[in-house]
Amino acid sequence: MKKKIVIVTGLSGSGKTTALNMLEDMGYYTVDNLPCEIGPLFFSSSIEKIALGMDIRSFKKIDEFKDFLNKLKTTPDVLSSIIFLQASKEVILNRYNLTRRKHPVEEKTLLQSIRREREIMAGIKEISTGIVDTSFDKPKELTEKLKILLCLDMDIKDINIHVQSFGFKYGIPIDVDLVYDVRFLPNPYYIEELKSKSGLNKEVADYVMSFNISQEFFKKLMDMFDFLIPHYIKEGKKHLTIGIGCSGGKHRSVTFAELIAKELSEIENLNVYVSHREKERGNW
């Protein structure tokens, strides 16, 4: 049986300690603020489930961290995951102002420190198994996202694909790779019996997809994904986030996100999960 090692990394103030506590509750042996040079000791330990918190304090040069992660990925009998946590600069600023803790990157201002860390850690984000934006997550929601990512990673697939609906009125998500706007489709919001429901309801989904323009756009999207995804895999990309947006993120975008995730899930070499940002934020 393969040992499971999860690396929890990302931006300072994005919830790494909270994530590690949750993983500990899931049965993982957790260690926070682990230096890179000590990390390999865990590769051969007898512990079966390990979660290591590693961030910008774990190395002197970013190449040290990348080398460590590469060694982890190529270690026999180890199933590894790299979870990258991030949040918006406004949220991180607020969290640091509340705790009054010192940021590990020393710049003239806290905002400059946050921006500099984001630049340094960008390369780690690219090679991560999964990316989680904790800007608006409650503990329960973060737990569910971690469970999804870790369960997906147990089946070794070519790429993890996260399909997320959102509302443009609340801003575009900061962690999406591809964004598609479905605001040109007929809006169920103006149908009285559908207004209070969401795209998770069959009546709403049936209404959205009852139009030729919806069917045609969905087909074109799937053709685009059929073309793009193999190329992303070929280039070594491990995580792809697809954002589907409508006005409020409740009807059209939810319908399309669910349909896209269902269609992609039928492809054997893909790990696919779906989320609805405005539902998570309580905007429905």
Automatic annotation (TrEMBL):
It comes from the Bacteria. GO terms for molecular function: ATP binding; GTP binding. ATP binds at residues 10-17. Residues 160-279 form the RapZ C-terminal domain. It holds the Pfam family RapZ-like_N. Keywords: ATP-binding, GTP-binding, Nucleotide-binding. GTP binds at residues 55-58. InterPro entries: P-loop_NTPase, RapZ-like, RapZ-like_N, RapZ_C. NCBIfam families: PRK05416.1. This is GlmZ(SRNA)-inactivating NTPase.
